[in-house]
Amino acid sequence: xxxxxxxxxxxxxxxxxxxxxxxxxxxxxxxxxxxxxxxxxxxxxxxxxxxxxxxxxxxxxxxxxxxxxxxxxxxxxxxxxxxxxxxxxxxxxxxxxxxxxxxxxxxxxxxxxxxxxxxxxxxxxxxxxxxxxxxxxxxxxxxxxxxxxxxxxxxxxxxxxxxxxxxxxxxxxxxxxxxxxxxxxxxxxxxxxxxxxxxxxxxxxxxxxxxxxxxxxxxxxxxxxxxxxxxxxxxxxxxxxxxxxxxxxxxxxxxxxxxxxxxxxxxxxxxxxxxxxxxxxxxxxxxxxxxxxxxxxxxxxxxxxxxxxxxxxxxxxxxxxxxxxxxxxxxxxxxxxxxxxxxxxxxxxxxxxxxxxxxxxxxxxxxxxxxxxxxxxxxxxxxxxxxxxxxxxxxxxxxxxxxxxxxxxxxxxxxxxxxxxxxxxxxxxxxxxxxxxxxxxxxxxxxxxxxx
Length: 452
Prior knowledge:
Layout: E1 4-7, H1 11-23, E2 27-33, H2 40-44, E3 47-52, H3 63-72, E4 77-79, H4 90-97, E5 101-102, H5 107-114, H6 116-125, H7 141-151, E6 155-159, E7 169-171, H8 174-192, E8 197-201, E9 207-215, E10 221-233, E11 236-242, H9 249-264, E12 270-278, E13 284-290, H10 297-304, H11 308-316, E14 333-340, E15 342-343, E16 349-350, E17 353-354, E18 357-359, E19 366-370, E20 377-378, E21 385-393, H12 396-409, E22 411-413, H13 419-425, H14 429-433, H15 440-451
Parallel strand pairs: 1-2, 1-4, 2-3, 4-5
Antiparallel strand pairs: 6-7, 6-8, 9-10, 9-12, 10-11, 11-14, 12-13, 14-21, 15-16, 17-20, 18-22, 19-21
Helix pairs in contact: 7-8
């Protein structure tokens, strides 16, 4: 097992890793930008090293500075968290060259799954259902038009190296396809340095279902059930839950087996997710694989009882998974609400600033993962998420009732947050019935605006 882990991240995920490492008896090193000097992860780690100014490019994305911090603190492993360098295939290569263990999959696995077109081909070869689309990246708008004609409109244009909704456009006819190709290519080039795009049939009103998978270097690989991630804005998730009300045991088994087959096709090691679109006809299609721990991993921890960060660390240290697939049981229901420093009624405008007072909720079935404290200054430089409120219940309704109570107890003064929006969602009849899809939030917000 490792003696010292450097956490190459910030905020609540840095705290989550530090806590897991402490329970394992492992020392931790926090790295921080000048903007995060007073952040909680800096205070709670055994050691802390400043790695640069606020801009992520000069700090949390600066591999040379992170590796220097790892070397001067004699860290023998690095946990990347999510975001930042977690899916940069060059980072594990640098770690390996410095004889420091990267807590995650190999650079080859990250590179293969990071190329969405290559990931599609891999899943096809593994027998995993994929959305009908182009065989690979498109060479021209004419080629895209030919593919779209074969598939039938609407289609969706996707960046091969994309994520987070960047480089994505929906086309309903050839004219919108041709203009969408140009826009998607430019956006992909600007965000990922790679303008390659491909086209898929657009699945209308789908649900976004992801399966948590984990594998070790001994050939063990299993899934830990699914998470429902359909409540999202601009392809960014806001609320997740497990299990999904859309899946019965038969469909869960089928999708879970497909997820494991897809991960096994690349001999995957570590935590990751296989993400699917589930159509109204209950047909499902591979969407992408995330080769890292996810923001929403706590809901899986709550319904399985397994600590995913501890498992991730153990697998990276060479230990075998202690679980078998037939031992995995989903118990009860869990929800996670992402609390963002935003003004949801003003088109989700960021709301950085000083938190004059923070009170965290508690009580049965409530968990809060957050780096907030009274007096903390939320910087404008990074992602707006400041807390995750997670609730568990014996069934979905109990988890929802507990979430309402928890959010009503939460006090964040000095900045605006998305808590009022979450409370409205948790009282919406369509949500309560489980009758929603990835476009649900847009419809919900539009209906609220029309009612005003």
